[in-house]
Every structure is written in C-alpha cells, then in structure tokens.
Amino acid sequence: GYAPADTFSPSSYFGPYLGLNNPATSRQENVQNRVMYSKQLEQEAAPIVNFVDVGSEKANIQRLMETRDSLFIFKEDGLFRISGTGPFNLRLDTIDADLRLVQPKACVQHRNAVYAWTNRGFISVSDSGVRELSQQVIQSEIADTQQALIQNTSGLAVSGAFAFASSLHDEVYFAAPAAANLYGALVLYVYSRRTGAFTRWDFSASGNYLCDGLYRESDGALILAGYANTLLNPELWQGQNIRSDQAYPLTVASITSLGGDKYDIQVAAFPAGYTPTKGDAWVVGGVDCLVDAFDG
After folding, report:
1. Phi-psi category of 226—alpha, beta or left, where left has phi over 0 and alpha has psi -120 to 50?
2. What is the 3-state composition of the chain as percent helix, strand, coil, each rounded to the nearest 5?
3. What rounded mean pLDDT belongs to the chain?
4. Residues 111, 278: Cα–Cα separation, whole Å
5. Helix (H, G, I), strand (E, B) or coil at 78
6. What is the number of other CB atoms lying within 10 angstroms of the CB of residue 161?
C-alpha cells in the first residue's frame, strides 16, 4: 500500500514497534518441553506450527545435542531422540525414560556420539543406544559428587561440572567438583575412546578451580578456564608438575642433537618444586618433547 510520508506510522502498517520501552515476550516461553525448528535452508524463519513436543509438558529440557543423523534431547523426564530426513517426516523416540543430566554443561558431542554425565555416571549415547562408561570402573570415585549435583536445588548455576572433547587426542574430558563445593573443579576424568580407559588429572596442587574447558581446532590446544587463571595444554600438568607456560617457563641453556629424534637439552633453571621424571611432556621451541632420561 501507499502512505504519505507525513502520516506514516510503522505500528499502524506493520504491527507493534519493538523498543526498549515496549518489548515483546514470546508466547512459546511457557511450553518448556517444546522444540521449535525452522524452514529448510531458512534458519532465521521458524513458523509457529513447526514444533515437536517432547515428553511431559511438566519436565524441562536440559540440553539439545546433535549428531550426524539425530537430535538428542536431555530432559528432566528422560532422554529422547528426534530423527528424520526433513521437517515433514520427523520421528520422536524415547531412548531412556530414567536418564537425567547432572548438569546441562556436563555433555559434549564427539565422533558422532554424545558423551554425558548423568544419574548413571558417565555415558555415551548414539543411534546404537546408551553405553555406560564409568560403572564398575570409577563410579565409586564420582558417586558423592554425582549425588550432590542431582540434589542441588540452590537455583545457582553449577560451573564445576562440565565436559569437552579433543578430536586430535580422541578423548573426552569430564570435570568433577568436590561434593562440598560444586562451583569449581579440581579433577578431570579423561576418557580415551581409543583404549576405553579413564585417566585422572588432579589439579589440586594448582589451587585453581576450573569452570570450563575447550579444544581449540586451530592449533590443537586444550584450554581450561579457571577462577585464578587459564591453563594452556593441561595435558602437560600432572600433580606437582602442574605448570603454566606463562608462570613457569623452562630456561634452556643449550640443545644438542643426538641423532634421529633425540636431543640433549641442557636446562639452566626449572620451576620451583619441579623435578623432571621420565615421560614428562615439555614444549621446547614450539616442539612437543618427552623426557627420556634426566641426569640432574
């Protein structure tokens, strides 16, 4: 239509004008079990008829996690999956009605599967089903913290329980706070997909409570965010040998080739309290090195 410039009113021609003084609230906000989806190839367009109601309307959605062919929905009343090849043939399945996340941040997608910390411990879930990873292995170590996370009703976000993964190392990392302090982790449980084994990384000596982590694709670095500082490549930090590239640099005096991939590295000074042992990982001149022997 046509409107003279001196009488033009956006609200009268195009509906309510949204501003700081008259914000609008979505009518969908009170449907806590609803998953909305957009038109194909138009991610910004989500018609109000495009939705799937998942599980009980009284149970909140905790987290949505995607794999190649499925969308997994963790809810307070179980684990569900939406699959299909398009918006007109979506299928909703109940995967496990008894499974719950202990915290929304405690799950990550890795290698076409989802890894999560649940009321049944650490698990992986894929189109093949649910696989329990920590039962009969390390479940006794995390049981108290797991129960405290499940029973947490403070209403505050728990930052000490989170998960992330490394495609380079093919590992999944679960951060575990102490049951008495859920707001920062001092332990990482590292699950190797190649071996099916767990390794425990203890950061207690650092006194730096961890609140998040990620794997950086650009250079393969593992980064942990802590309340005190950020740790780069935490796989180099073990027990008393925990060190920061910035806080505890190695002072190298000389490097002599011994042939092949072996070198004699003379170090002028080590970080206080650190004594090298065989198998320790160093980064010298940007090159990853493993200590084979130390002569003092």
Report:
1. beta
2. 10, 40, 50
3. 81
4. 32
5. strand
6. 27
Tell the residue number behind the tokens 């203890």, with chain if given. Answer: 202
Residue that has been written with the tokens 């999560």 in this structure:
116
pTM: 0.71
Please report the pLDDT score of residue 252 as a whole number: 74
Length of the chain in residues, anyone?
296
Note the pLDDT tens digit of each residue in 231-267. Answer: 655 554 433 333 333 334 567 777 788 877 777 888 7
Calpha distance 219→217 (Å, rounded): 6
User: Which residues, in sequence order, are bridge partners of residue 101?
Assistant: 118
Q: Using the structure block, give the residue that is written with the tokens 């728990």.
A: 158
Q: Report which residue type is found at 91.
A: R
CA distance 156 to 181: 12
**Amino acid type, 197:** A
Distance CA 144, CA 187 (A): 14
- 37-90 pLDDT, tens digit per residue, is 998 889 888 888 899 999 999 999 999 999 999 999 999 999 999 999 888 899
DSSP bridge partners of 192? 171
